[in-house]
Each structure stands twice: as C-alpha cells, then as structure tokens.
Amino acid sequence: MYVLNPTTAPTAARFVAAERVRALRGARLGLLDNGKHNSNKLLDHLCEVLAEEHGFADVRRARKPSPFAPAPETMLAELADSCDVVITAVGD
Amino acid sequence: MAVAHGAPMVNELSVVSDQWPVVPETEFQSEQLEVVDAAAAMELFFERGWTDGLPIVPPTPEAVEAMLEYAGRYPAEHLGSVPERRREVNVEKVAINAVMAGCLPAFFPVVLTAVEAILEPRFSLVGPSSSTAGAAVLIVVNGPVARELGLNSKDNLFGPGNRANATIGRAVRLTMINAMGTTPGVFDRSCMGHPGKYTYCIAENEAESPWAPLHVDRGLHADDSAVTVFAAQAMYQSNDRFHSDAKSLLASTALSMAAVSSFLADAQPEMAVVVGYEHMLALRESGLTRNQIKDFLFERARSDLVSLKQVGKLPGSVKPGDEARFEQVLDSPDDILLIAAGGVAGRYTNIIPGWPGGGSRSVTRAIGQCEECHI
Question: Which of A1, A2, A3 should be substituted to probe chain B, the one whose Cβ sees the most B Cβ atoms within 10 Å?
Fold first, then answer.
C-alpha cells in the first residue's frame, strides 16, 4: 500500500549575502533590538565592548515593535542605508 | 471556492452527492511511500517524527482523495504561508494530516477553515506556536455544522470520547507539526506545553444558551457555520459551588480570571470564559445580557499591585499605596470570548487565558468564506 508524506519542506530562500566589511574601526554600527525584555541591555553591553576595541563612526539603534513579527521593511531599509554592520539580538 | 452548506450527515460517509463539484482523479504532489501494511505505516510515521506521539491513521491516496471530494477542494490550492519558516500550506497537506488524525471526510471543511484562520495575519501564528509560553489552538465550532457533525458541547466537554472534537483539533495540530514547521523541540519551544496541544476543540451549547453564540457576537448570522481559533493556554476550572445568584457567580469568575492572568503591561491577551451548564442556568435566570456579563467581568477582573509584585507578575518592589492600585486583566470587555458549554451536572466555569506574548488575536471565520467574493 502507499501512504502520502504529510510534511512540507522550507522553500529555498534566495538571497545574496552582503559583502563583509574589512574592519570594524570607523564603521557605522546598527543595533536591532528584537523587543524582548533586556535586549537593549545586551546590545548596549556589546556596543560598549566593541566600541572600546574598534571605535565606530556612528551607532544607530532600532527596536522591533514585536518580538514575534519580522522587523518592518522600512526599519530594515533604514538600517541598510545608514549602517555598515548591524547586530541583532534577543533578550529575556 | 465556496463550500456548499447542508452537508450530508456523518453516517452517510459513502454518499458523495452529485451536488458537489467533481474533483478530477487526483494527482498528488506529495511523495508516496510504499509500506507493507497499516501497522508498518504507523511505525514509519513514528520513526520519521510525523506524529503527535500517538498512532496515526495511514494517509492512503484513497483516504486523502475522499477528504478532497467531500470538501470539493483542489489539492494544489494554496491556503497560506508561514514566511518566518518559509512554509507554504496547501489543501493537500491539510487533507493528509486530517486523515492521519482520524477525521471523517465530513469534518474536513471545519479543519480547513481552522487552518485558514490560524494562517490569517491577525492570529500571528509564529509567536504562540513557538514561544516558551506554549499555547495551543482552542477551536470553537458554531452554527449548523456543529450539530450536523455531532460535535460535543456538553458532558466531558474538553475530555475524550467524541470523534469530531478529538480529531478536528488533532488534525490542526498535526498540520502545524508537519506542514507549518511547528516541530516540538525545533520551532515549537514550549517549556511546559499543555494537553490542549493534542486537541482543544469544542462546540457551543447554542440550543440552551441565553446569549447569542460566539460567531454571532462576532458579526456572523446564526445560521452561518463558523470556526473560531484562539491561541490559548491551559485552562483553569473555576468551581463556585455555593453561589446561585448571577452577580456572585460572576464575581467569583472574575477572581479566577485575575488569578490566572499574565498581567502583561503592554499586551494583554484575550480570555475565554466557558460558562458551565449550571452556572449558565443561573445567569439565564438573571436576564443579564451577554454585554452586561462581559462588562461586569471586565471591570471586576483585576488584581492589586502588591499581589502582582509578590508573585513576580509585575517588576519592582512593593511601594506604599500599591494595595489600592490595580491592573485590569483585560484591555476591553470585547477581549472576552464568552462561551456557554459544559456538562449538565457540576458547578464550573472554565477560564482559558490567551497566549501572553502579545500580538495574537482570535479569529472567527465562516466555513466556506470566500476572500474574493467577500461572502
């Protein structure tokens, strides 16, 4: 007898990875907070540690309206335009 | 494509009315696996992680085709996406999982509607189905279809024994596990989980309720058949054995609501209040309307800040005056899903808090609802 497979597989995502920056010194840093409790503290601490070692030209912060939905396209576009590297983090 | 109403009775399984659209001999997109027999199929599905931990009914092409024929739906029809998990859900996959759950073909339109409902943006599936808080999907079926399918709205309401209640809820969960990426331990990271994740499906006691049923409260007609889905935590069985007047019963219900609420500061979820039969009779005698009941519960369901801080539901230390400051359980009386259901003996009302993550709202969808036709 035959039975049917009940599962779906993830559809292949097509994206081109951004070019990596050669050095963090002088880069414009973006911090994307996913909206969870304490995300901001984690990101602030990371920023402090990295800034001490490398030094950034600028730091931008953004916070998702909800941890459970994707970041709005406008938010992502703004970060992509104004930053060379972005760190995104969860908290809790 | 709309589904015709007035489906044949459940025991007329072999009847495929000539009213139904003719579905051509099905070419399934899904992989077909050869097995020796049904027992081997059941073991295979356990090995592959395709079950909820219980044995499944082997989804043969014939059984899946029976689901599709009954509902008059094409297997390739796209129902929706879970973009965060890059999953696309079609009718075929839901039909396979409905067979596995043990559904009769007559149940399939209900299952499809529930799946369509949880895929609506308003339900915001990813949060409740993946977070550590671990919600299930409460399914409430209203209208003629509930009676036609023999869905249980009374004794042993949330318990075992009724095929429709058990398998409709199970079909939705299996579809979530297998076709939507809600795999336990992978994307489903519930800490505790709860038994509603096996099945959590009821009908409302519309015949005896003094209030308009849930789907009518939400804008549909009484003779529409509808499904409401709600991202729901485990329930608390509130047992008021001594009060017989409406106001006292509602006050004790409100206390129970406060005891089980998450009290999130910025995202209060909804709450279902399933009024048991004996409590429903007392409320019916009072003449209180549905809106009056909801208003009363909304106002009374609250807790003082001292209590909330002491149990860690609110941050910070207790300050002078906190005993006289209150947080409401809900943002609005409209956040209460008031449902009359439960067995005839026993003085209970069940409180079902919504998923505490914020952003997920219950969805009511008519069976046969057509997005393009707006009917």
Answer: A3
